[in-house]
From TrEMBL:
Pfam families: MiaE
Protein name as catalogued: tRNA-(Ms[2]io[6]A)-hydroxylase
Transmembrane segments: none
Coiled-coil stretches: none
PANTHER family documented for this protein: TRNA 2-(METHYLSULFANYL)-N(6)-ISOPENTENYLADENOSINE(37) HYDROXYLASE (PTHR42637:SF1), TRNA-(MS[2]IO[6]A)-HYDROXYLASE (PTHR42637)
């Protein structure tokens, strides 16, 4: 399913553990609630970048489009939840995004570059997880997740291209650093299920 996105798969350090996929199948209500939160946060991140870096024309263009698409995805997930009588409630975030952001540098333009690289990993992992889940879900939900792959892959590409555009040097070393962190976050066990969590701490 992800054969059309070889750059994305080469970018990620690993695929999602099978035990995480099984965990997701058993927690589809939580999966959808957390997915809705993730789409809303993704739109918020894009808007935040637009407010912070008003002088970056290409960033403004890319992030404006991304924010609109993420909000549409939020609306689509929320509609599915309502159809399935799933309440939209607050959920504590997984350690994934914060774990990546801890290594973001604080001076510019390094801060922007690292933030964009983290965004690329978040979008790439979301795409990989949607593809991993789709074969195991009901027809409606499977079709929805497959429909998201193209936009998520494009968001990954946009974030990564912007990171290189605004960096004063090659971003390869920074990508390698965040790839190592991302792999740890994906393969180490978690106590609670989330869309970006690791595998379950206990056998399911």
């Amino acid at each position: 399913m992800l054969s059309s996105y070889p750059e994305l798969m080469a970018f990620l350090p690993c695929t999602s553990p099978e035990s995480w996929v099984h965990w997701a199948i058993e927690n589809q209500d939580i999966m959808l609630v957390d997915h809705a939160h993730c789409e809303k946060k993704a739109a918020s991140t894009a808007m935040s970048l637009m407010y912070r870096y008003v002088e970056r024309d290409n960033l403004l263009h890319k992030m404006s489009r991304l924010a609109r698409e993420e909000l549409i995805h939020f609306e689509q997930v929320h509609k599915l939840m309502k159809k399935r009588n799933i309440s939209y409630e607050h959920l504590a975030a997984s350690r994934y995004a914060d774990g990546l952001r801890k290594k973001i540098r604080t001076h510019e333009p390094a801060r922007l570059v690292d933030t964009l690289i983290v965004g690329a990993f978040v979008e790439a992992r979301s795409c990989e997880r949607f593809a991993a889940l789709a074969p195991h879900l009901d027809e409606e939900l499977s079709a929805f997740y497959i429909s998201l792959l193209k936009s998520e892959a494009r968001h990954f590409e946009d974030y990564l291209a912007l990171a290189q555009e605004y960096s004063e040097e090659s971003i390869d070393d920074r990508v390698a650093l965040f790839r190592e962190i991302e792999q740890t976050l994906i393969v180490e066990p978690d106590d609670v299920f989330r869309l970006h969590s690791g595998p379950p701490n206990k056998p399911i």
